[in-house]
């Protein structure tokens, strides 16, 4: 069974911070159905996209640790407060966007140094972060959270499970819908793409689409409706990013 990913966002400026991040990793990796991601230093945009952004995109939950990163002055040169890592705040914002865009809960537990002032997405994503205490106490709270949190409805797992339920011909239909734009793809266009790019004959393309509709009804990955020009097919809006990734991987393996 594929393990679900928990994103660990923790400072790495000191050995103490790195050791805490690695300890959190070990707690998560002890679970039979979860695995952790704790980013190492990223030095180029390719690594950023491939690793950190990919993990933020695919994770079903997050552990956030906010360490102090220095004092900040406001526009009048008065002290505003102590800010946490800008990078970690950016990761929090990405998780907040995913919550809004996917319409699904992404369980998150946050620890913050008592001196850190919350700002930006942090003020709406997490209302009551826990005070960052001793490592043993932090790890115990994470264990309790892992036991209590419900990760089963996370979008990546839903897409992955439902994709595997599709037949190969139905996967071709989904791929053709994505190739044609992903939304409101009328059947005549879908048929042309299937014949041109996926090797279906004119005689079989209609029956393949009809059979795929049965798969779509049971998985919910694709919906369709009647238009004056015929049936129009659309990939599920919430799951479309995940479906596009599945199609891309499937196409690469053909």
What does this structure look like?
The chain is an alpha/beta fold and 254 residues long. The protein is 51% helix and 20% strand. Strands 2-1-3-6-7 form a five-stranded parallel sheet, sandwiched between helices. A three-stranded antiparallel sheet has the order 8-10-9. The protein has a two-stranded antiparallel ribbon with strand order 4-5. Helix 7 packs across helix 8. The protein is elongated. It starts with a strand and ends with a helix.
Give me some keywords for this one.
254 residues, alpha/beta, 10 helices
Uncertain residue segments: none
User: What would you report as the Rg, rounded to the nearest angstrom?
Assistant: 22 Å
Query: Major β-sheet, in short?
Result: 5 strands, parallel
Strand order of the largest sheet: 2-1-3-6-7
Termini gap: 23 Å
Categorize the overall geometry: elongated
